[in-house]
Structures are given as structure tokens and as C-alpha cells.
Design goal:
Radius of gyration: 25 Å
Shape: elongated
Oligomer: single chain
Strand order of the largest sheet: 3-4-6-10-11-8
Largest sheet: 6 strands, mixed
Number of strands: 11
Length: 131
């Protein structure tokens, strides 16, 4: 069986079996190979948690509880492992200690008004940080 050849861009013939595959690059991908110096902080958004018992935390870190009636949050959805979340309490929102959220007191926790609470997602569970 005779080997098949093709002409490369440089004009050389090479066996087809030895063609190199060049991976395509994802557009708008940013690769950082050294430390970055920033003159301005990255823009962050603060989202209201709303009255949902399972609010989405997709691509955000800082939230404001803004309920006028009591709400018990049972899970923070769409989060990624390692994602930190900070919530500014309102005195109406309670984090339910259970399978998806673990408070640092081991029980349901009312988020007091004007106080920040920090959670970190690990292995699918939101753990409250701090004592």
C-alpha cells in the first residue's frame, strides 16, 4: 500500500498520517501567565436576594437581603464549589441549617439587619464562615 502525501503550506510534501492537529482557541479567552497590577478594582454587583427560598447566586458574591416579611432560605442555588458569598442581613431572612446550608451555630440563623454573613460552598454545601 503506497503512502499518501499532501503538500504543506511551505511547499513540502508530508505523509498524511503525520499531519499535526492544531487545537482551536476559544474566543475571548484570557490567559494570565504572570501577576496582574490593577489600577482599578474589578466591578462587582450587589444583588437583592428577593423572597425566594432558593435564590440564585450565579456569578455573584455579594447580596443584600431585602425582605419585609419573614423568609427562610433553604439553599443558595447555581453556586460553584469554592465560591464565597456575603449577605447583608435585613432582620427578616433566616438561613435554614440543614443538608445544603450549615450555619456556624448548628441551627437556623436569623440574619440581623445591617450585619454581614459569609458562606463558602464546598462539596455542594454552603458553610458559614467565622465564629
Amino acid at each position: 500500500m503506497a503512502a499518501e502525501f499532501e503538500r504543506s503550506d511551505a511547499g513540502f510534501e508530508q505523509p498524511i498520517t503525520e499531519r499535526k492537529i492544531t487545537p482551536s482557541r476559544v474566543t475571548e479567552e484570557q490567559i494570565i501567565e504572570s501577576a496582574q497590577t490593577k489600577l482599578v478594582l474589578d466591578k462587582e454587583f450587589v444583588k437583592n436576594l428577593g423572597s425566594s427560598v432558593t435564590p440564585s447566586v450565579l456569578n455573584l458574591k455579594t447580596f443584600k437581603a431585602d425582605n419585609i416579611a419573614p423568609v427562610t432560605v433553604t439553599n443558595l442555588t447555581d453556586g460553584q464549589d469554592g465560591q464565597p458569598v456575603r449577605i447583608l442581613g435585613d432582620g427578616q431572612t433566616t438561613m435554614q441549617h440543614g443538608a445544603k446550608i450549615r450555619t456556624n451555630i448548628g441551627a437556623d440563623k436569623l440574619l440581623l439587619a445591617d450585619m454581614f454573613y459569609s458562606f463558602l460552598k464546598i462539596d455542594g454545601i454552603w458553610y458559614e464562615q467565622g465564629a
